[in-house]
């Protein structure tokens, strides 16, 4: 390997300086005034811990390996020094066009996020800085034309970066002075190891490297050896982030498979959780089963998985952050396992995977099947859906203001659990994580809702509890008063019976058709009419096989005397639903009385026909 260096670097003991000095500001870091204007426009008052530590070292030209929690400001910590360097190079050689920085990320979603942050920070730099994102879902010819103009910063996944390095050769990388690998512990886990080896050989010697990661794993050590020259290591410990205000309350609920649906219905319908929520499930089919189930009760949610086009996924995340949607039902197919000791091997069920494949036909195959309803002569081989290998939800995507992460299906490792719950309690805010765990004696009792991964729930929970205890955190049991919850069971079972395999298959195909149409055929229209894109909804109803309008209303006789608070035996997990002293029928009667009174009607016995005043025609 060409770039192998001494793995032992200087280490900055950030543990001894857990808090940022109150006098530290962005202006004191020596940044360009144009960048300071961009920072001010974003509303960043003072630098976060990782920014205060990393930016001065980066401006000195040192390689940096920083470990900091997701949401701690790592993106701005490496973008600001890179932009500063680009501006200085432009001042020295104003007419020279060259690519000076490569930013490599594991997913397309993260690439889009970094691209938008670059635009915002460089908003006052005019045409002095130009960044392109070649990870987006466009053709190679379009990407090549974007790179032909020698943009200052290239944002890409390692696979896309290597593709164009091979096509354009040294012309693309000869002036590169900075390399950033964001979410470094994820990059190798996503299968980019060969790509990074080749990129390492193609890049010039002596460039400055930034490795940003949430954990220091063996993968990060590999990248450090491959790219860095005695890097400064910033170990920003968990305790420091806690001092900045991070607070995740972690709960676990032991229940049967069908009770997951029951409790989810109760939690969302009675608003036990207030705010935005990400619900993690184990399979794509399970996404649509849960979405269709919630639709029966008038609870809107949108689906996020690797089967959807990348443009749709990016728009869903953007609209979620704006508050358009409150609930996202997401899969985590590319769940990061890594080399952790507490890894629990995933058991892929034969029966369930076959069902998933059967129900996951592409939109074109479904349309062909509908057109050819004649007697089948030979059984066609069904095509498996094309899943995006660069898709990832539990890491890398900037979900904002998430109040709760609900692990509807427990992840297969404690490491993945940590990444999932990291979606909440970001930027000094508090949040909650709740996980459903199926005891071994209850696994497989309810066949329609059972998946094989729940067989290991108790073992995974033990690893999670052990790992969180090392960090000084506690996973507390949360107990629902099941006697009170049971009154909702018949409604849950009624709704669940409506969500058949056929309904799931049709909903999945319909959703895919809609998203493909919105992402591809209307792409040019949306570029010319950006306002129209705001009206594109991803949480619309998919219409289960049997719609039951009466399920949308919760009759008061189902609620306990204490209201929704009476459903839980432990501390309240959200905002309780206050029981109204009057029912809606009584309210409607009183409203009608007021209307009649205002119209001059006294009493019920008066003939309404005599109220009208008018003259007869002669």
From TrEMBL:
Residue ranges occupied by any DEAD-box RNA helicase Q domain in the UniProt entry: 24-52
EC category name: hydrolase
Compartments in which it is found: Nucleus
Keyword tags: ATP-binding, Helicase, Hydrolase, Nucleotide-binding, Nucleus, Ribosome biogenesis, RNA-binding
Bias (Acidic residues) ranges: 336-345, 358-368
Family annotation (Pfam families): DEAD, Helicase_C
Name of the molecule in the record: RNA helicase
